[in-house]
Amino acid sequence: MPVVPDIIQRFQQAADGLAGLNRYPFADRRTAWVERLSVNLPELQFLDSLVDGGSCQYAGAAAAVVADGIKPPDDLPGIAALARAAHLNENHILQPALQALGAATQLGHLNAFIQLASETQLGEQARTAGAALQAGRALPLLGVPVGVKDLMTVKGFALTGGTQAGPGQPSSKDALAVSRLREAGALMLGTTNLHELAYGITSENPHYGFVGNPRGPGFTAGGSSGGSAAAVAAGIVRAAVGTDTAGSIRIPAACCGVVGFKPSYDVIPRQGVMDLGATLDHLGPITQSVDDAALLFSVMAGLPAQVPPRLHSLKGIRVGVPSNYFFEPLAPDVLRAMNRAMDRMRSDGAELVPIALPGIENSAALQFATLCSEATAVHWERLVHKPETLGADVRIRLEIGQLFPAIWYTRAQGARAALAAMFESAMAGIDVLITPTLRTTATASGTKFLVVGQQEMPLHAAMTSLTLPFNLTGMPALSLPCGTGQNGLPVGLQLAGARSHDWKVLAVAARVESLVQSSESFL
Predict the structure, then answer these.
(1) Residue 224 annotated as catalytic
(2) Are 147 and 112 in contact (CB under 8 A)?
(3) Per annotation, catalytic residue among 203, 224, 264, 363
(4) Helix (H) or strand (E) holding 432
(5) What digits encode the pLDDT tens for the residues 413-429?
(6) Per-residue pLDDT tens for 221-236?
């Protein structure tokens, strides 16, 4: 008879009482809760061992996004490629969006979009942009079609959150970040598919279809912003908006071979965006290039539209290479791709500096306690009154959130503050940190566990372990493709920076992008 760990036994004993305390009417599902909790046994054992987490204050909002001392350029090289000249008429403004609409329809099997704009809706948007153009506004995104993750309000579209709660009314206004894109002349092509409620990393949505990976049929597109990444990778749109709570921008970007940028916490405002974990949620762009990501980032952050400062080499840039956690375990093809990329950076003048990150191995436990507690609080009414509208995986993740003691949550927040302080200390004198985005390339759809090196890992742990530390700390992090793996699918390279050093990350990423693009393959 298998031995049941003490912490699991205690959850078994507490499940009925906690469900009763919360007036949760489906306590008969307790066996499934305990089975799901067992998947995260290492995280639970760590949380149980925490005694004094110090302050329970989480990271909080970021400072000004130019605080790193790198001033964005006064001239805006590259923006003209996305903007449209002032003499173009309304039909010219509309044409790229109509082409994107046709591509989205033709590639409907990818399930990248939940809702698409009609030609009439696009025409109305183009007329509005044309009138603004006539009034003398600059409109740096004039006519650019954009996909928006269906987790935020978009005027004229119902907000679904990727879940099934009956037909909703079209939103009467945009989320603030979407409004800023529209004011810059962008046209909203539609709302993109996602992992239900953004609570997962595969975008295998039971209500709106599994999002396909344009780089490999039958492989996951990653999540939760899978539809946004797939739309960009397939060439339907050049730019899309995603959200990132544990890696949900960077994971699909890595799986689909595009650029995904998670800025510093709350630099892009989340007004009008459905919460999942409010202290972990970030908003950001998924695009075909770093310049495109910077352009969307600047607009959504309320800054003048701009691309990163140009670095003609990496000379003088100190790049931190973690000596623990991030590179072990790692699939051999991912390691080869990373080594090739780092060799090119070194040849370009970068100084690669090994750095230790003590305590980083506890990040998953801190994320688990934080997100389970916050997500269940956000979606409690839906869970109690409309459980039938939820997919099986999301429902059980929301259910187990009610079982976490409040003291674990507060201790986890104290440990988060210590984690952020550790990063600040470890990165003193370091410009950016380099890591893989994922431990493997994209996995086959339906995968639950995978072996990385000699270690078997649950899929969610393998997919989020390298991205979630930067949600806990609010640090900016960007994923860009750096070659292909053994299965022909993209390998993602991640660059992270100190809080508020968004432009430094973007500037280095643009240079690294130019270096890795010159290689045909990293095998």
Answers:
(1) yes
(2) yes
(3) 224
(4) strand 432-436
(5) 999 999 999 999 999 99
(6) 999 999 999 999 999 9
